[in-house]
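On to my pick:
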Amino acid sequence: MKTIIVIMIVGALGGGGTLLYRSASDSTSQSSVPDGLLHTAGRGKLTVVITENGTLMAKNSEKITCKAKGGGTITELIEEGTSVEEGEVLCRLDTTDLEQEQQKLELDIVKTEADLDTAKTELEIQESDNVATVAKARITLTKAENQLERYKDGDAPKERRTLKIAIKEAEIRHSRAEKKYADSKMLYEKDYINKSQLEQDDIDFERAKIELEGANRDLEICDKYTYPMTMTDKELALSDAKRGLDNSEKRAKSTLRQKEVAVESNEARLVSLTSKLEKVKENIEYLTLKAPQPGIVIYGDPSAPWYRQNIKVGGRIWSGITVFTIPDLRVMQVQVKIHEADINKLEEEQTATVTMDTYPGLLLKGKVTKIATIAGGTDPWSGNDDEVKRFTVDVTLDSTDGETLKPGISAKVEIFIAEHEDVLFIPLQCIYAEEGVYYAHVLGDDGKPTRVEVKPGASNDSYWQILEGIEEGDRVLLYSPALAAAAGKIEESEEGQAAASPATMPMQNGGG
């Protein structure tokens, strides 16, 4: 940390700085303390700033990452520091593998589209066949139902009635033949007819008897065999027709579903292939990185410089890695790290001035716009392993005065903290603390230092504001005599000298 206190002494400082020092000749007695180790307390205006070195950067930067899955190898790369416009190509990655995959997917899509058309045609044919098959099965069922009903309610009763009529006719013929035969026997006995006539009537009677037995037998066979067997056949045909319809419907449904699955499978495959093709095309587009805004090209992420070595032609870039940073140079800021001892002095909107060695004579105004709430700790890359905590502070420039500033260069920031008008102050080395009480040594009129208790006010790395204990014009020692004596003893012990003079201590005159 570098904390510089700018002291502006306003007042009667003429005459060779008579308020800051008194000549030894003005003293009532000769002082034993050299003038170079004294400071004369004076009043004036005290301006306090915190000065820290930082890095110039754009307030808003666009980071360009590799979005292509798996990344790629750089085949074309723009030079770092080049000014680009929006949409300008920054980098191209190798697309050979993706282009081959794209061609394969396009061929697969053509084949799948043909398979889908075939499957749809087969589905339409199957739908038509199913309608015809089921309709045919329904007709067969209807015919079986009608045939059963016709036989049961029509053919069978009709056939039975015919058999009964045949029986009645046979009974009549039997009765007639029987009577005729009986009459013929009587006539034969009386010799009215010959024997051949009697025998003929006997034959007719026997025939009639057989016909009657046959007619009765036919009815019995019809009731016992023909009707049940025919009904069984008709009912079996009806059952077969019902089963045929059910099987036709199920088979039609199953076959139709197979055709539908073939269509759905090809549709799903087509969707999958199309999605893959779109992603491949998208990845191919991602392999060309373009500037999203105007600016200057910076390789990688300034906060992660260790990856910059991969950003070169032939280098491998992985997905998600920041390849370029395009800062918006219209609004610039300086980012500094402030020591934890000074962070409470800072507030947002405090004014600041910024200078850069790269731009000699350029003095820019700015404001504190952001103060980190959490300390960043030690920078692991700095090699400094102490435990000092630092807070990141952003100072945004009001303008660049028409200059095109280069991000990444070093800049010095002076942040205005406070300004005290007409205050009494002395150098820091004049005051020391013992058990929480502050003291200083004031040179008396007799030329001897006297320890006095003081009440300090605002402090900084160079001066204390004195509220009580010291008056304007007092001559204050720039060291503690006790510490000087201790230092003299150490020097004597180390160098074997008899004594060490306080005048040899490395004190500086803080006046003027």
Summary: Helices lie at 14-17, 96-189, 195-286, 481-495. The first strand starts at residue 5 and ends at 8. The chain has two domains: 5-60+328-504, 98-285.
